[in-house]
Design goal:
Blueprint: E1 6-12, H1 17-31, E2 38-44, H2 54-61, E3 66-72, E4 74-78, E5 84-88, E6 93-99, E7 103-110, H3 122-129, E8 138-143, H4 150-160, E9 166-170, E10 182-186, E11 191-196, E12 200-207, E13 210-216, E14 219-221, E15 226-232, E16 235-239, H5 244-253, H6 257-263, E17 267-272, E18 285-294, E19 299-302, E20 311-317, H7 319-334, E21 344-350, H8 354-358, H9 363-371, E22 377-382, E23 385-389, E24 392-396, E25 400-406
Parallel strand pairs: 2-3, 8-9, 21-22
Antiparallel strand pairs: 1-6, 2-6, 3-10, 4-5, 4-22, 7-12, 8-12, 9-23, 10-11, 13-25, 14-20, 15-16, 15-20, 16-19, 17-18, 17-20, 18-19, 21-25, 23-24
Helix pairs in contact: 1-2, 3-4, 7-9
Amino acid sequence: MADQMQWANALSTRPSLEAAVTDVVEQAVYSLTAPADLGLVFISSAFASEYSRLLPLLAEKLSIPVMIGCSGLGVIGTKATGEPQELETVPAISLTLGHLPGVNVQAFHVTAEQLPDLDSSPDAWINVIGVQPSPAPQFILLSSGFSPRINDLLQGLDFAYPGSVIIGGQASSGGLSREISLFCHDAANGLDQQLYREGTLGLALSGNIVLQTIVAQGCRPIGLPMQVTKAERNIILELDETAPLVVLRDMIASLSEQERILAQHSLFVGIVMDQFKSSVQQGDFLIRSILGVDPSVGAIAIGDVVRPGQRLQFQLRDAKASAEDLELLLKQYQNQDYLQPAAAALMFSCVGRGQSLYGQSNFDSQLFRRYIQDIPIGGFFCNGEIGPVGGNTFVHGYTSVFAVVHPISGEA
């Protein structure tokens, strides 16, 4: 019988770190019927004073070649009943283990100072990351919440590793930078029980594995798509040869009273990612924040560089739009054909979603389970979510990024 890929996740809300570690290891190991090749651990910031003890405690209970993880304001996992659970602002640990026959697993850590210039060759990026581009690796990235040049790193990875999927999130905390931690153990690559406060921790998975991504940005378009006719860096000076503030005021005047109220605090811009697509809809946009306006010239500043010729459309975000956006993407995933069934999922959700958006717990994870059932799910609440839109990788906000893990073939 072929050696099959297996995954397991365990959650614990025990207030003692020792008890919580024992709890998740026993549950996860019991669920696997083969040795674990990889571990992913997410720990809530309620344990911030004890972060340095996490990897040693895990090593006492679990022999595993590679493990990465980080801190989060909340963690996500799977209860013994198989139901997903999002635990926000309470002491909790989520541990995911994977038995991965036919998969090469390699961890790495990079800082902003190590990154090449953006005009460097692919080889310069490959030398820094230390991962071969073929077969195309699947990357999981965990970054410190204050990591500079994270956008440069994503752009460099897209450039040097064409065909690779890159997902992940920025570690979060209760507000203090010292509560941000990244955890790594990969003795074969010189990373033995490392704790980092900055930089980006990466995991490269190559071989018999593929990550299918669902990037739910939680917005719905309003008004009509428009073309940027004049711009400087992140400042839009003209939309369809009209001052953006004039366009925006006219559009808001056409909205319902409820939408006008929502636009006061939940208005965004969606940049069309495929400029050749004639008709755009939800899922075709990269969502970016509106940072400010200049009434003297009618300009709008947004949270990304914009170029003349690009199309964009204003967007609204609320609980209803977020739910509909995620459900639409889940239906699209469900309608695709896969050679092998899903084995597990990872979830990276913004700290601004969860209870604060929906007014209830477990909304995104339970909606996910309604469409993709009977697989373990693990993850955490992020300070920025990493995932692809339109063929390139970005850091998002107010987003839930899912990576659904599939083996490529049924045999190792």
